[in-house]
Amino acid sequence: MKKTLLLILLSTAASLDALAQIDPVLLRRVSKDSTRTQLNMDAVYNRPFLQLGKLPVSLGGYVEANYQYLQENGVSEGHQFQMRRLTLFVASTIYKRIKFLSEIEFEDGTKEINIEFASVDIEIAPLLNLRGGVVMNPIGAFNQNHDGPKWEFIDRPVSATQMLPATWSNVGFGVFGKKYTDNWVYAYEAYLTNGFDDKIIDNSENKTFLPASKENRDRFEESFNGIPLVTGKVAVKNKQIGELGLSYMGGVYNKFEDDGLTLDKKRRVTACAVDFNTILPRVGTQITGEWAWVKVDVPDTYTEQYGSRQQGGFVDIVQPVLKKPMFGFEKAVLNVALRGEYVDWNRDHFKSTGGRIADEVFSLVPAVSWRPVAQTVIRLNYRYNWQKDLLGNPPSRLAGFQFGFSTYF
């Protein structure tokens, strides 16, 4: 790890030294086609990149850091400063219809280093394009459109990170396409990839927990059980109405056979999600929402705390209140925002009493954010959670302030 970091630092230093000797005119931001309607599935390319002259490679990335002071049931860990993540993008147009893009993320300093996306796209026709490599499974909208500078909230949604596995990517292949008709755009994606393993029910959380499979780095070189994970999404967007997406992800998660010996039946995990986003005309209010359902075939030998059904989602409302030059920034924007979120980790009932299992969390996050430019956000959040245990006892309460920034570079 130390050698890897040293190489990264030396390479960065060499690059900066080289750039210092280059005419700044040659450095330019890659322009975007603003005449076409962008979807969540376009987020992987809808980012600012820096291109050096006529070199075929473009670079970019984003960074986010924050301060927080939270209390849970009156107990606090005090003042905390966090370097949430540093993400690097490298893109290249290999030929006019062949593209490559990679996304490498360093979380919590270098506690985790992940390749979140590294794929080659081959454009054959508007409705038929091929993609292969490390792809991001398009379940919901946040998993694809998760860059920190795009959001007014410091924490990622609970439903996207603790129920669905946020930034969930795997090795595989698939197809995607779009069709434009007047003010409408229709799109689809479909992939076959490696998938989950039995850690979704055998983990330190002691509950059904899909994000636990992200710990399995072997999924980038082999499938846990030899059966592909199927992921698909369809989306439709109207420039005046908004975007609606429907997505599905499903596959076998357990090791059901080993060297021809049957160990168990094939046990499936299935997730479905619906997402919607729009901007209200005149007032400019941005509304973004997502809701998902998860179903897991849990063995009868597991206790009732491992839920076979889960559901949850979030709604963000962002209202620009001031758009004017501020502190020397010509297009600065001040926003107020509110996020409401809910996750039920166990929708089952106790077999002995028939009573409902209440393993769930509610959250409200009011926010104020300032954008000196569109690619940079400074945000102040107040988080308030209340979470019930399996038995539905009085909820555990967490509350506190968070302050930080996120920016593309």
UniProtKB/TrEMBL annotation:
Residues 1-20 form the signal peptide. Keywords: Signal. This is Porin. It comes from Chitinophaga cymbidii.
